[in-house]
Write a structure and sequence with these properties.
The strands form three sheets. Strands 1, 2, 3, 4, 5, 15, 16, 17 and 18 form a nine-stranded mixed β-sheet that branches. Strands 6, 7, 8, 9 and 10 form a five-stranded parallel β-sheet that branches. By secondary structure, the protein is α/β, with parallel strands linked by helices. A hairpin with a 2-residue loop joins strand 2 and strand 3. Helix 8 runs parallel beside helix 9, helix 12 crosses helix 13 and helix 13 packs across helix 14. The radius of gyration is 21 Å and the shape is globular. The protein has two domains: 117 residues, Urease, subunit C, domain 1, CATH 2.30.40; 288 residues, Metal-dependent hydrolases (TIM Barrel). It contains 15 helices and 18 strands. The structure holds zinc ion. Zinc ion (ZN) binds next to loops.
Length: 450
């Protein structure tokens, strides 16, 4: 019965679940909790009984034996590369890139890039990912796929010091970023960023010009850095500096800089990352698969570097599953250090949620409020089935999410207050059609690969 004289506040959606893992400042976990959503934003988080007393939702979704938690944030990927998943494996990075990946990508069409990105978006939604940071060729196709699928994304045309299928030279590449920013706008669900590929594919002039453009347009700046020993050796040989020092000297490190990998930082470079506020995205499975090495993430955490988690592209992983990535990250650093206390489940979950929000420069409030379930944040979350055999019994929801979950337990994904995926069905993606299109993709790769 409603309390007499008490008006319930209308809201659009109320989702309740057995456990709500908020990731708020106190890392609060609620039993029999709920989230009330108005428009795109979380209005309240609390005990389900209180929220049902206080709110009159247009839609009331009781998930029962589920674990509701913030959507995961994939802070470094190349979603369209689902096209090439499994097309070339078990090779060294430079051979893999130069002999197998770059020649296929040179022939890529916007239609194929869109199909690949849409498949990537479908995969991410099914694994509870609600936002991703994506660098690729013909990136308008990924922007379109993100818009269509309902995912949140920061997408950037990859900039090289040589022509790509999207531009003939550096100036055209930078103009394309400017045009995409005008098309997508500064604050929507899908935005652009400035993304030079790496120090080994971009001359210093492109790196500095691209950073100036990011400053002018107030955009995120994202690049690969210090991914392999050979890249670090090359920086020492060509520039007589370590990669992070080189970036600092070029004036490229600030809180708008998000660096994928950084597998081999020196202690001085770790200090530079802390003092400049640059973010690092850890991609453990890609680093493991390409045998690039193990980034000293526990050292970076202890020093206070801003860190997120990414899958990297699905060719070097070979999936976009951040639940799996969290488990791998935790196990890798424990194993490497011969110390099970070296990194905790909570630290790893933080990387995939709050850390990812910081890497996207969206760790504020409202439309920039990602990474936790709290009033004023965007309504981006997922829910896991707690009756899956591998999810019972439940003692510690954080440990369950990091060590026991596989991603297959995701039964609901909500982005921007809208249900985008529920119990195997997509709201906005015609998945049966996408399955048919993948036949065409496979034929194209077979015809065109070396
Ligand atoms: Zn990458």
């Amino acid at each position: 019965m409603e309390t007499p004289g008490r008006e319930r506040v209308p809201c659009d959606l109320l989702v309740s679940a057995r456990v709500v893992l908020t990731q708020n400042q106190d890392r609060e976990v609620l039993t029999d909790g709920a989230v009330a959503i108005m428009g795109r934003t979380i209005a309240a988080v609390g005990p389900a009984v209180d929220l049902r007393r206080d709110f009159a939702p247009a839609r009331d979704l009781n998930l029962g034996e589920s674990l509701l938690m913030p959507g995961l944030i994939n802070a470094h990927t190349h979603a369209s590369m689902t096209l090439l998943r499994g097309a070339a494996d078990d090779l060294p990075l430079m051979d893999w890139l130069n002999t197998h990946i770059f020649p296929l990508e040179a022939k890529l069409s916007p239609e194929l890039a869109h199909l690949g990105a849409l498949l990537g978006c479908a995969e991410m939604l099914s694994f509870g990912t609600t936002a991703f940071l994506d660098m690729y060729l013909l990136e308008r196709a990924t922007a379109r796929a993100a818009r269509e699928s309902g995912l949140r994304a920061v997408v950037g045309e990859v900039l090289f010091g040589f022509p790509s299928p999207a531009y003939r030279n550096m100036e055209e590449g930078l103009d394309l970023v400017r045009a995409m920013h005008e098309e997508l706008g500064p604050s929507g669900r899908v935005r652009t960023a400035v993304m030079p590929h790496s120090l080994y594919t971009c001359p210093p002039e492109l790196l500095t010009k691209s950073f100036a453009l990011a400053e002018e347009l107030d955009l995120l700046w994202h690049t690969h850095l210090a991914e392999t020993i050979s890249e670090t050796a090359r920086a020492q040989h060509e520039f007589h500096q370590y990669p992070v020092e080189y970036m600092l000297d070029l004036g490229l490190l600030s809180p708008r800089s998000t660096l994928a990998h950084v597998v081999f930082p020196t202690p001085d470079e770790i200090d530079i990352l802390v003092s400049t506020g640059a973010h690092v995205v850890h991609c453990p499975e890609s680093n493991m698969k390409l045998a690039s090495g193990v980034s000293p993430i526990p050292d970076l955490l202890a020093a206070g570097v801003s860190l997120g988690l990414g899958t990297d592209g699905p060719c070097s992983n070979n999936n976009l599953n951040l639940f799996e990535e969290m488990g791998t990250a935790a196990l890798l650093h424990k194993s490497e250090a011969l110390d099970p206390t070296r990194i905790t489940a909570q630290q790893v979950l933080d990387l995939a949620t709050l850390g990812g929000a910081a890497c996207l420069n969206q760790n504020g409030q409202g439309q920039n409020g990602l990474g936790s379930l709290a009033p004023g944040k965007v309504a981006d979350f997922c829910a896991l089935d707690l009756t899956a055999p591998n999810m019972m019994p439940l003692f510690d929801p954080v440990a369950q999410a990091v060590y026991a979950a596989t991603g297959q337990e995701v039964r609901l994904t909500v982005v921007d207050g809208v249900v985008r995926y529920q119990d195997g069905r997509y709201t906005d993606i015609d998945f049966p059609l996408l399955i048919q299109e993948m036949d065409k993709v496979r034929d194209w790769v077979k015809r065109n690969r070396a």
